[in-house]
Amino acid sequence: DWVMRDHIAEAVEAIRRQVGDEEVILGLSGGVDSSVAAALIHRAIGDQLTCVFVDHGLLRLDEGDMVMDMFAGRLHAKVVRVDASERFLGKLAGVSDPEAKRKIIGREFVEVFKAEAARIKETHSRHVAWLAQGTIYPDVIESGGAKSKKAVTIKSHHNVGGLPEQLGLKLLEPLRDLFKDEVRELGVALGLPAEMVYRHPFPGPGLGVRILGEVKKEYADLLRRADAIFIEELREARDASTGKSWYDLTSQAFTVFLPVKSVGVMGDGRTYDYVVALRAVQTSDFMTADWAELPYALLKRVSGRIINEVRGINRVTYDVSSKPPATIEWE
Ligand code: XMP
């Protein structure tokens, strides 16, 4: 629609004016906000933007390749992919406390990003002066309100405070005035696929908090495959009365890896393999949430496929806990 078109034209003008002929670095996570920010800034200044995509090895199945296909392949943006999975897994070895894992992942993320940004700053011929972030309006309120909000941190959500100063860069935040639904509309208008723009939220620490306790590559690989099956079936199953997919009817859905083994039977043999839990919730604000009443037929299909297709998992459970008192994530 032309209102959005106007908004894009205005935002593009504003970015060009602000940036001039200087260079911009942006941390691309594959999430909605950083993706839309990247697409918008790329529209404005093209190759003056370099995106840095830090792959911590705790992404979903094929997620890294999808991000690269989209931004490098389709938008022809400059994207540097940093494969840091071994570094992250190394730092996480032996650590099972959820908050400790979050801190490690957050800290390493900043370290890897900083090193890459510093490298780009040094090697670019033009002056790299800006760090772009996909900060949206609710983030602005949240951090502004944080001064008075002496609330207990139940889960430390890592955000990258102080990074621009440390890198000697100015902040570029073209989504600062927008609410989430406006960011999504903008993304679609910029040509990002609706499937990407309307994705469920995914936590910064990724699968690191969906593998209970110690994170291991073996667990992450099993979880990625199980979760991909769950999400694929949710996207395919439609609710008869609304015609919507169960993916769109839920606010967040994912699979959790439980590092316990249970007994099963396959053919003439006995198995002794891992358990996963499926989690699907409906919520408007993520502060409270109800577990989703997914159709039994859908749960049955998902469970059957995971157990048959993912060797190493022989039991699937469904989480029927609401928030509160349970949280949406298991860690
Ligand atoms: P909980 O589990 O607290 O989750 O009910 C509420 C929402 O926050 C997301 N979440 C996170 N997002 N870093 C993030 O970026 C985190 O450490 C983190 N922990 C939880 C969660 O996915 C849900 O959408």
Would you give an account of this structure?
With 331 residues, the protein is of the alpha/beta class. It has two domains: 2-197, 3-Layer(aba) Sandwich (Rossmann fold); 210-318, GMP Synthetase, Chain A, domain 3, CATH 3.30.300. It is built from twelve helices and nine strands. It has a five-stranded parallel sheet with strand order 3-2-1-4-5, with helices on both faces. Strands 6, 7, 8 and 9 form a four-stranded mixed sheet that branches. The radius of gyration is 21 Å and the shape is globular. The structure holds xanthosine-5'-monophosphate. Xanthosine-5'-monophosphate binds at residues 102, 155, 157, 201, 203-205, 252, 286, 323, 327-329.
Structural class: alpha/beta
Low-confidence stretches: 145-158
CATH architecture of the largest domain: 3-Layer(aba) Sandwich
- Nearest-angstrom radius of gyration? 21 Å
Q: Percentage of helical residues?
A: 40-55%
Oligomer: single chain
Profile the largest sheet: 5 strands, parallel
CATH topology name of the largest domain, in short, is Rossmann fold
β-strand percent reads: 15-25%
Strand order of the largest sheet: 3-2-1-4-5
Based on DSSP secondary structure assignment, what is the total number of beta strands?
9
Mean pLDDT, all residues: 93
Number of domains: 2
- Write the H/E string, N to C: HEHEHEHHEHHEHHHHEEEHE
Dominant shape: globular
Q: Spell out the CATH superfamily of the largest domain.
A: HUPs
Distance between the termini: 41 Å
CATH class of the largest domain: Alpha Beta
Bound molecules: xanthosine-5'-monophosphate
Number of helical runs? Answer: 12
